[in-house]
Design a protein that fits this description.
By secondary structure, the chain is α+β, with helices and mostly antiparallel strands. It is built from 15 helices and eleven strands. It is found in: Cell membrane.
Amino acid sequence: MISLIVKIGPIAAIFIAWFYTYYQGIITAVNIWAVSEIFNHCFFVIPGAFFLIYQKRIPLFQQPFITNYWLLLPLMGTLILYTFGHVGDIRLFMHIATFASLPLLIWFVIGNQAAKVIAFPLFFMLFSIPFGEQLVPYLQELTTDLAVPLLELTGIPVYRNGLYLEIPEGRFLVAEACSGISFLITSIVFGNLYAYISFRTLPKRLFFICISVIIPILANAIRVYGIVLIAHLTDMEYAAGADHLIYGGVFFALVLFLLIMIGESLRDKTEITEPQKSIAKEGNSVKTISVNNKPVMTSVVIILLFISQNFWLSTVVSSKSTLVDDALIVDLMTLPLMVKEEKLKKWRPDFSKASNIQQGVIKRPNSPDSIEFFIATYFGGEGELISSGNKLYSADRWTLIKNTKVSIDEEKDIQLIKIVSPSGQYRYILYWYQFSSEVFTNKVKLKLYQTWRAMLGQRQQSVIIALSIESEQEMAAVIAMLQPQVNIIQDSIKD
């Protein structure tokens, strides 16, 4: 009993330290798994991976367990990534670091030779990372691109307006739920697992994984086409409302069935002899080796590494910046503009956790047209400017048509988007992010820069500035109307 504790104790201590270090990453990931149906399958990934390891237990324990200290380098990388994500509240970084560190940790303990035996289960653990929602806008576009030709081929008159599809019987929106992201992610996970179980050669495995990516994309486009076709044939009596969910569930089942049928037709017919069975037939007892030649040293190294990371993280999080300025970077009320503050009701930007919000209308001299403005300011350490909860416009009322970068002067570029409402109203929104005196249009770059400055103890003020106008005119004419106001605002920041 004592010898068993001596062998297992250090390993148990390592995984307890891992859980404590990555606790926030684990909890936030589990919350996403529970809330989002896209990632419900993640609950089964880690248990499934350990079950696959258990199936390989006999060949695994036949290998020498020799600690690979070179893996301390990527483990340190995951700790740095996790700290960076924690400080900047970048959940994706936290989740990547959390679930990449687990297989690395196992690999570190058992060494290269043993890790080869369970290479796929270690890789499979990465599917615990709740990643993929970022693909939704691209999948919406791709689904629409594929569905429109199918409708035209069957003689259904269709007019595409952004993500809206209009037929004589009514209008359809290829919304986020129609992107097929659930199909795609679950199919990829299933495809990898099925390929590992069913095929022995790498080319076959890769081929089936590619199929598991392509088929759900094509199937989802056919599903959208089928919904519109049924609505056309039944004069909108069917294929609306709850019918979407029913057809979606049925189609998903068909996708999995099709993948299984393709897999079975390609499956290696030769029975794979399990090492457990062959060893059992020989009547030999399997000799289980110790975890490694120095289990205590291995656990001490890892635990000291985790303690150092926790100390560093607590130091960065508790540090207070001395560079925070509560004076607004942009205050339209002090600028030479005719400003009327009022709540915007048409495009409905939502930055509810901002430290300060300015919104309303800028009257243009000698022009009946007015420009709407929205400015959300975040003081250092208060809220997050770059967050999935912040919306520049209401996705329920508008769909994106164009998103492009435009040059206002030789030094700075800002972003221009064009959106359309279900009733066909077009609106332009010209916006940029301001971090102190620096201009950003890419929110990923801004988020990374903000986090880097925060890790240095410099939590400065950040702002989003947006000007909008409802117009049927071309982009160049709209830019000409908005440029004077942009110049006044940017000149005030330079000062």
